[in-house]
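FW: tagging you since you asked about this chain on Friday. Here's the raw sequence from the shared folder, copied in full. Didn't touch anything.
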Amino acid sequence: MKRNLIGGEWIDGSAIRQNINPSDIDEVVGEYTQADASQARQAIDAAHAAQRAWSFSGIQARSNALDFIGSELLARQQELGNLLSREEGKTLAEGVAEVARAGHIFRFFAAEALRIRGDRLSSVRPLVDIEVTREPVGVVGIITPWNFPMAIPAWKIAPALAYGNSVVFKPADLVPGSAWALAEIISRSGIPAGVFSLLMGRGSVVGKEIVNSGKVNALTFTGSVDTGRRLAEQAAGGFKKLQLEMGGKNALVILDDADIEIAVDCAIQGAYYSTGQRCTASSRFIVQKGIYPHFVSRVAEALSELTVGHALDPETNIGPVVDEEQMKVDQEYVDIGKAEGATLMYGGEPLRRHTRGHFMSPALFADAAPQMRIAREEIFGPVACAIPVNTYEEALEVANDSEFGLSAGICTGSLKHATHFKRHMQCGMAMVNVPTAGVDYHVPFGGTKGSSYGAREQGSYAAEFFTTVKTAYTRA
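HL: got it, structure written out here
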């Protein structure tokens, strides 16, 4: 059984949770302890006590620790990618790539720790100098989702530590294995006891303590819109610094002048890989009518050529849905799409494989309308719909008609339309002839409207959330 890391010690919890493989529900990946409220408070107290010394430990010590973590992740990417794929359901290739990405993120912030920037300015008053510096926020609570169990924790934990904060980390219940493996590496990196704690446990118990504690200075969360709203309401009373990454209903616009093969590849990669379980997934194909019939038929054909199966099978293109509950949601939306009058062009059925798992054929709806639920609500599964439009202007209007604004893409050969789209699409990340899902780790990540709240994640822009600015005046 794997234990929680609290104040530098591995500690038993109040209960045990089995980690089940969604590719084979008869396989238990491992058993992981569950923290209770008192242990959450213990971890927060340890983080609070350790943070100040860590912030003054020196940038080289922080850089060395992060480089150690990143280097070990890269060295063990095959092993840890296998674990990730077994517990989350990504294909093995995707699991290995995610661990590698986590490793690169830690190494990126190992370098960032050595170049924390400030400014020295002249005052409007004679003989006075001004220094603007960045200091750590303090104790950072980190709550992460199940769909990227290595990458998302990495892009939150690494900058938090790089800038001198201490961390209390609560991973999603469905993916404790990746979280524990990452925590075990961090525990050997030279980081002092208490600076980093792992709390596996229920959000209603552990998450509640993190959100409500007066000793937690900042909270960064990735997950559902409903949970994000609740956390925002709870955190507001404590004046916590808040960063929320939530949902998406991302549009991929296909214009008549698009290269059809590029458009189909963007659709398949963006909407269906990782079983569509990405907040950046393309779930709305907004297609100009001249290319619409060809595009829809080609996407359906491409889907028929994909293999759905066990995540560790090298022939698999799409792994299982993460669990039974998400599978039910996906199937409900297939039924909703049919009832709304959209045409199911391909897929949507539960599948049987040689192991008992949550397998589903990727679903494509055609002839959807913008007001349909399948075109407005985040499904978080391998389900996408195609919406026909007449003009680029109509496509842009439909794409922007959403409560979300995370990622959006356009496939076109027109520089004019691509440039206009990048400026006028209401989103945090705009893609031209590349999938909406799939982003680099050294540049900002985040959205607009209901998708994100607070400062951007990743890259040098992470400093905006994980530091606070101090202005100092000195008279010589």
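FW: The first strand starts at residue 4 and ends at 6.
HL: agreed, and The chain is about 40% helix and 25% strand.
FW: great, closing this out.
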